[in-house]
Amino acid sequence: MQQTTADLKIGQRGIIHDLNIDEIPLKLLEMGCLPGNAIELIQIAPLGCPLYFNVNDSHVAIRLETAKEILVILENEN
Amino acid sequence: MAKELIKVALIGNPNTGKTSVFNQLTGLHQQVGNYPGITVEKKIGTCKLSETTKATIVDLPGTYSLNASSIDENVVIELLLNKNDENYPDVVVLVSEVENLKRNLLLYTQIKDFEIPTILVINMCDRMNLKGIELDIPYLEQKLNTKIALVSSRKNIGIEKIKTLILDYENLPTTPCLNASSIDPEYFENLKKAFPNQLLYKLWLIITQDVNFLNLERNQIQSPFTKSHADLKRLQQKETIKRYQFINDTLKIGQKIDLSKATDIRAKLDRVVTHKFFGYLIFFFILFGIFQSIFDWSSVPMDFIDHSFASLASYSKTHLPAGEFTNLLSEGIIPGIGGILIFIPQIAFLFLFISVLEESGYMSRVVFLMDKIMRNFGLSGKSVVPLISGTACAIPAIMGARNIENWKERLITILVTPFITCSARLPVYAILIALIIPEKRVLGFISLQGLTLMVLYLLGFGMAIFSAYLLNKILKMNSKSYFVVEMPSYKIPLFKNVAINILEKTKSFVFGAGKIILALSVVLWFLGSHGPKSTFGQTERIVKSEMESDAKTYDESTLERKVNAYKLENSYIGIIGKSIEPAIKPLGYDWKIGIAIVSSFAAREVFVGTLATIYSVQNDNENETSIKAQMKQEKRADGTSLFNLATGMSLLLFYAFAMQCVSTLAIVKKETYSWKWPLIQLFFMSGFAYLTALVAYQLFK
């Protein structure tokens, strides 16, 4: 099964592999959420959503459903 | 020979300290207005560059790119697309920030495609050591085709450098950084052939954005070059990737980051501030602190203003020659101005707290914490900002709802924000609470009056949430829910930014709402001190004949009071008040309160001023008395005090819920593009207010 950014654990990093462009706001792309860039999950809000990422040095919070549209390859699985 | 006036546009991402740079460059030489037709704030300032040259600087709204997703961002594109605009810049100053240089440069490369001279300001350079960042400025300048100013607006470093670069703008290269049209060569080649005189990037923006371009009709280029929405977005993604490739290549050589040196306070603070328990606790304590301090701290200056104007009014009455003009001054104008100035302490405190929360970066964490909770009610985490700034004033708050991407969430936010206790309700609350709640402290330090105030705030907030929940169930709308929030690094708020913000907001209140209040005070004074000839003109005779029929003798002062009371009752205002009395009697109000409610439909804060005017006309005495004291003296026909617990509660609830603000209705109309929503708001809120006030009075009576 494909991993998405929603599967990351706090502190875990991945490389963006692909994303569903129809479901991702342009603004997020412009902040550097693009294939090939690293993405790290920093924090999950108390009720499981939104998720707070560091992508391409931008610190952004997005909702779970958006995070599920971003496919990643995990950097270090443990 | 340099020009005498250089037009500068300040552009940059949000959270780069753009406004600080603007404040440093222009100081207090700023004007705040609106862009025509829309309510986006327009800030223009001037700056002296040399003995002979000045610059006018436009501070444009913060934007992440030239692909606009809100009206605020549209302003930037519209200005750059329209060469005939009076503010079209000779030179752009692009403000970036040292920690987010990569992302900031995206906007920079877009601006460069306009072939306008563009100075790159890299702000917050004082943080470079802390973050282990090194920049090769000569290399960057050469790669990016520009001049760079390393600036710290916080420490006032590099501002002179910006001025020198602006003066020399004609020598800046205007060549773009990269050729973005290579993402689809054939398409752009055809576009260029069709419109040889236009900049390619401009054409591309016109095709992709919802912007009205004055010189070039949109549909004119549309026909052969239209693409589906999805195709356009795919191209935009390609364009973005292309730009980032260039930026990454440039920064690979031009920027060195030593991660071992970097200390990340942000991560540590975030762990606490967004913690599932401590996060909410901190948020609650911040709110609690704000409300306690607003009530405690501003009561001293407010009492001072209240008493000063009362004594000024009585002074002018005794020391000026008696006559119509003196009456107008001491009963209309002076209480009117006092009724405006009395809000300044509270408004200033509120904006102090709000701008500190915004400036420090804490507000984004609140958005993050609250999003999931707010979504249950059809709101967004971003609704928290309007709801909090709604405690200052619903008007900027409703405008602040613009950055909510989802239309349904935005509409609900706009509709429920007026329930939030705004600063205009504060004086009404303050005076009523002071009258009906004893000045006691619970547990030694919590003031009971402050606590009541907090309950009223919570009530407004609860009502906002509850009606959001209802609206979410009722409104059938499907719009995609996008949510992207930047979490900026924490900063200590700059005194200058906070101070200018407070000054501006207070000024716009005094001169905006203030005009209405003053005008209404004068009208009220006139209506209160004039009346129909047949009754009002015959006062003395009627009162005397009444006395004679009573067969009692009164002393001078009682006679005077009787005459004044009769005059007020038979004045124009008395006639209006009496005619609405049946509708408000069940709520426990007399006709004087009725007048205050009707006139405060323009703005809630008018309530206190109106009562002040009415009572000062009625009492007509030369002793100084504050509004509060006069309200305390008011008696019902049966001799009990008018402002007792029941009436007080009823009034508090009425003002908590009723839509008593014309300006808010106007702004809602503007933001929702129809009269439908403001009218629904008006009837729902005011109807609900009437019912709760009725129930409250009947229960407490």
Automatic annotation (TrEMBL), chain A:
Q: Which SMART domains match?
A: FeoA
Q: Where is the Ferrous iron transporter FeoA-like domain?
A: 3-74
Q: Does the keyword Iron apply?
A: yes
Q: Please verify whether the record's keywords include Iron.
A: yes
Task: Tell me which domain of life the UniProt entry assigns to the organism this sequence originates from.
Answer: Bacteria
Report keywords, A-Z.
Iron
An MF annotation (GO) of this entry: transition metal ion binding
Q: Name one Pfam family in it.
A: FeoA
InterPro entries per the UniProt record, alphabetical? Fe-transptr_FeoA-like (IPR007167), FeoA (IPR052713), FeoA_core_dom (IPR038157), Transcriptional_repressor_C (IPR008988)
Family annotation (PANTHER family)? FE(2+) TRANSPORT PROTEIN A (PTHR42954)
Q: What is the protein name stated in its UniProt record?
A: Ferrous iron transport protein A
List the source organism: Flavobacterium aciduliphilum
Species lineage, top-down? Answer: Bacteria, Pseudomonadati, Bacteroidota, Flavobacteriia, Flavobacteriales
Automatic annotation (TrEMBL), chain B:
Q: Where does Mg(2+) bind?
A: 23, 26-27
The answer, when asked if RNA-binding is one of the entry's keywords, is: no
**Keywords from the named record:** Cell membrane, GTP-binding, Ion transport, Iron, Iron transport, Magnesium, Membrane, Metal-binding, Nucleotide-binding, Transmembrane, Transmembrane helix, Transport
The entry's GTP-binding residues are: 12-19, 37-41, 59-62, 123-126
Q: In which compartments does the protein localize? A: Cell inner membrane; Cell membrane
Signal peptide range in chain numbering: none
Task: Please report the record's description of how this protein sits within the membrane.
Answer: Multi-pass membrane protein
Q: Which positions fall inside the FeoB-type G domain?
A: 5-172
- Stretches that traverse the bilayer: 277-295, 333-357, 377-399, 411-438, 450-471, 509-528, 642-667, 679-700
Q: What InterPro entries does the record tag this protein with?
A: Fe2_transport_prot-B (IPR003373), Fe2_transport_prot_B_C (IPR011640), FeoB_GTPase (IPR050860), G_FEOB_dom (IPR030389), Gate_dom (IPR011642), GTP-bd (IPR006073), P-loop_NTPase (IPR027417)
Name the Gene Ontology molecular function terms of this record: ferrous iron transmembrane transporter activity; GTP binding; metal ion binding
Keyword Transmembrane: yes or no? yes
Q: Which domain of life is it from?
A: Bacteria
Record Gene3D superfamilies: P-loop containing nucleotide triphosphate hydrolases (3.40.50.300)
GO CC annotations on file: plasma membrane
Q: Which family does it belong to?
A: Belongs to the TRAFAC class TrmE-Era-EngA-EngB-Septin-like GTPase superfamily. FeoB GTPase (TC 9.A.8) family.
Q: Describe the function of this protein.
A: Probable transporter of a GTP-driven Fe(2+) uptake system.
Q: PANTHER family annotated for this entry?
A: FE(2+) TRANSPORTER FEOB, FERROUS IRON TRANSPORT PROTEIN B
Kindly provide the name given to this protein in its UniProt entry.
Ferrous iron transport protein B
